[in-house]
Amino acid sequence: MSGAKEDYAVGKGKPPKDTRFKPGQSGNLKGRPKGRKNFTTELDEVLTAPVPIMENGRSRKVTSRMAALMRLRKKALEGDGRAMDKFLELSIQHATEQEVASTERKLSASEDDILQRYVDGLIGGSADNEEDSNDSPS
Q: How many angstroms separate the CA atoms of 24 and 16, rounded?
């Protein structure tokens, strides 16, 4: 055997030197190729892709998302119970989000200052409280 292999102890966390990854070589050679899109990106592309629809005898292009919502609305208005439930669920969710967005407001400078002093007091006060509790006999 060569002298290099004998002075190196192989064990947990110490693989043999000849089986280690070479510099610049990844452990997952068949992993995701560079530039490959993730599911969220692909879904967004599909939902925003334009599709032709016929409306009032005329063809126009809308996003896939819009076409799906228009189809859901049409089925709900035709009396499909499942479509009606889903359409109402989406309507309620949208109304709730709109209500929350309209009631939120930006803090004024004085309110922001009060909040910052409160947070600073919590952070600074927690260390003082721990020291006090360690000093006091129980």
A: 18
Instruction: Give this prediction's pTM.
Output: 0.49
Ordered alpha helix ranges (H), 1-138: 3-6, 39-48, 64-77, 81-103, 109-135
Cβ–Cβ under 8 Å, residues 107 and 115: yes
Averaged pLDDT of the chain:
83
| Host domain of residue 57 | 40-103
Query: Domains in the chain: how many in total?
Result: 1
Tokens matching residue 16: 């043999």
| Domain assignment present for 72 | yes
Q: How far apart are CA 95 and CA 82, in angstroms?
A: 20
Whether residue 96 lies inside any domain: the answer is yes
